[in-house]
Amino acid sequence: MTAFGAPVAEALVASLAPGSGDTVLDLAAGTGDVTEALAKQGARVISTDLSPVMVEAARRRGTPGVEHRVMDMQAIDLPDDSVDGVVSRYGYMLLPDTARALRETRRVLRPGGRLAFATWAPAKLNPWATAYGPVLIERGLLEPPQPDEPGQFSLGEPERIEELVRGAGFDELSVAEVPVVFRPSGWAEYRRIVSALAASMREVLERLDDETRAEVDDAAKARIEPFHSGEGYALPGITLVTTAR
């Protein structure tokens, strides 16, 4: 998964372009991939996540120059004008109130400070992540996502991103596509990783009887077979990286 996310981490760091000694806030930092990349650029990083487990996982990396804190993106526990940059990989799209989180982001940024964040492009551009969802929805086993519901593809349209970002007080804005390729070694690894990434889907799969689960697995596997590569798969996707100030 680190290799899968590396192009996005690189794009975020390049978009933020932190100077040596800048203070950067990493929101929804997870296990700290982006935090570590920023620290290597000489930035002082405040690495945060709502999950204490994730914060502890990032802390275990032992990256120098990093402060680790449990923090809610919708209520950032920092003073106004206190950081030079804010970064988030796949955080804003999962929030109940993205607009509030972006206003909080604007509040803690110093004048001229820059924001860089990643979200997934629409589902049709991300076949790596869409094997199981449609199969479960078609069989009535999973509710389809609602238009305003937080989720993996809720910020997939640049127009919606621009509306939210400008509404939070940012003026300059750009959205770029970053291609990624997910390379599981085989079907078993694909199933294990993808189901681990989506709690609601994993819970549905675990509740199914053996016969239904096997039928769902076969249908999901058929959706990724066009991307078979060697003994594994090469599943494409597109991330949107938004930069604003």
Describe the structure.
It is a single chain. The chain is of the alpha/beta class and 245 residues long. The protein is built from nine helices and nine strands. It has a domain of 163 residues: Vaccinia Virus protein VP39 (Rossmann fold, 3-Layer(aba) Sandwich). Helix content is 38%, strand content 24%. Strands 3-2-1-4-5-9-6 form a seven-stranded mixed beta sheet. Strands 7-8 form a two-stranded antiparallel sheet. The longest helix has 15 residues. The radius of gyration is 19 Å and the shape is globular. The model has no long low-confidence stretch (mean pLDDT 95).
Layout of helices and strands:
Elements: H1 2-16, E1 23-27, H2 33-40, E2 44-49, H3 52-59, E3 66-70, E4 83-89, H4 98-108, E5 109-120, H5 132-138, H6 158-167, E6 173-182, H7 187-197, H8 199-207, H9 210-224, E7 228-229, E8 232-233, E9 235-244
Parallel strand pairs: 1-2, 1-4, 2-3, 4-5
Antiparallel strand pairs: 5-9, 6-9, 7-8
In short:
This protein has helices at 2-16, 33-40, 52-59, 98-108, 132-138, 158-167, 187-197, 199-207, 210-224; strands at 23-27, 44-49, 66-70, 83-89, 109-120, 173-182, 228-229, 232-233, 235-244. It is α/β, with parallel strands linked by helices and 245 residues long.
